[in-house]
Amino acid sequence: MYKTIVKDVGSEASAFIEESMIILFGDNAPDELSDYCYIIEINSIEGEITETQKVCIDDQTFEITKVGASVQKNLAELGHITLKFDGSTQAEQSGTLYLEKAEIPKIEIGTKLQIV
């Protein structure tokens, strides 16, 4: 339903890992934000992102627990969402895709991200 690849890693992209989150942005990320983001290819989404799906990061799979109201639009148009690995079932941030509580896997240039 959605596939992308990490093209670049900002120098401060790992800064939010302690807060169980990572920030994705397309290669059009503003300069003042790109240091804090994992830069991805902007690709189309086939269908609607829902809590019945999973996020795959390379060979690891994570349950989606909540989809923020802006996730679909932001991911399709900007490649910009936050992945939060805290198991939340309430969307506090509209641009956040909430995933099961888990340790964030290593993400580097070439890492594959999918929603299935």
Automatic annotation (TrEMBL):
Gene3D superfamilies: Phosphotransferase system, glucitol/sorbitol-specific IIA component
GO MF assignments: kinase activity; protein-N(PI)-phosphohistidine-sugar phosphotransferase activity
Superkingdom field: Bacteria
InterPro entries noted in UniProt: PTS_IIA_glucitol/sorbitol-sp, PTS_IIA_glucitol/sorbitol_sf
GO cellular component: cytoplasm
Ranges annotated as spanning the membrane: none
Record Pfam families: PTSIIA_gutA
Biological-process GO terms, alphabetical: phosphoenolpyruvate-dependent sugar phosphotransferase system
Name assigned to this protein: PTS sorbitol transporter subunit IIA
